[in-house]
Amino acid sequence: MDIPAISAILLLYLSLYLAAGTGIIGGEWTLATATYTRRSQTGGGACGYSWEAEQRPESVFELGRNTAAVSGELFRRGGACGSCFELRCVDHILYCNHGSPSVVVTIVDFCAPDYGLPSDDGGWCNFPRHHFDLSLPAFSSIAVAVADIVPVQYRRVRCERSGRIRFAIRGRAYFYEVLITNVGFDGEVAEVMVKGTRTGWIPMGRNWGQNWHCNADLSGQALSFELKGSGGRSSTSYNVVPSTWIFGQTFEGKQFENY
């Protein structure tokens, strides 16, 4: 096999991997399963939204009642946090709501695996399953809540958000951390850079969920942020954090724009 043919095959596999991992907004429906939980998903979890919920209780209502935790195959170590998926119950005449209506959910948490149970009998979030653990309102929108688990189809969709992207400043001294929330369009953030008035652009790493960090002392500097979404959109918010900032404050920046 010649080099161009091998390159073409590698590119094909890469494109399929990316499509499976992140999902293309408005793409094809993919099979998965769904359960539900009665506990609140926005007050805690692996995306980091619990801190904002404590500081701004109204943020729970901004995320809405339709939320979900997802299995590791979909969670991607926090890469899916904030993204939106449309789900519909399929192939279950007893439990799917009539007409197979759909619901849009926001990913707010990680559904942990349980390898003590079979993947097809309780270990719903075991790798490599595609599974959604939905809030009760979201589940009830597509299926009868007496069901333990239902088959669903899902696809990535655009996130509808009101207002601007928020940057919650956390950390200490030379460990600078920011929680990024209320992200529209792509919903999820793929890359973050921060710039102080005395620095160039500094790449930030994903600490966990939607918490991003860098090892830098940015105190006493006005801060700018550059974000890139998984769908290729970018947003630059210049000097949105004043030089008088302190840890624990939240500021607003430019929302992703449509194109």
From TrEMBL:
PANTHER family: EXPANSIN-A15 (PTHR31867). Causes loosening and extension of plant cell walls by disrupting non-covalent bonding between cellulose microfibrils and matrix glucans. No enzymatic activity has been found. CDD domains: DPBB_EXPA_N. This is Expansin. InterPro entries: Expan_Lol_pI (IPR007118), Expansin (IPR002963), Expansin/allergen_DPBB_dom (IPR007112), Expansin_CBD (IPR007117), Expansin_CBD_sf (IPR036749), RlpA-like_DPBB (IPR009009), RlpA-like_sf (IPR036908). Residues 44-164 form the Expansin-like EG45 domain. The keyword Nucleotide-binding does not apply. Residues 1-19 form the signal peptide. It is found in: Secreted, Cell wall; Membrane. It is a peripheral membrane protein. The gene is EXPA16. It comes from the Eukaryota. Belongs to the expansin family. Expansin A subfamily. Keywords: Cell wall, Cell wall biogenesis/degradation, Membrane, Secreted, Signal. It comes from Platanthera guangdongensis. Residues 174-253 form the Expansin-like CBD domain. SUPFAM superfamilies: Barwin-like endoglucanases, PHL pollen allergen. The keyword Ubl conjugation does not apply. Gene3D superfamilies: Expansin, cellulose-binding-like domain (2.60.40.760), RlpA-like domain (2.40.40.10).
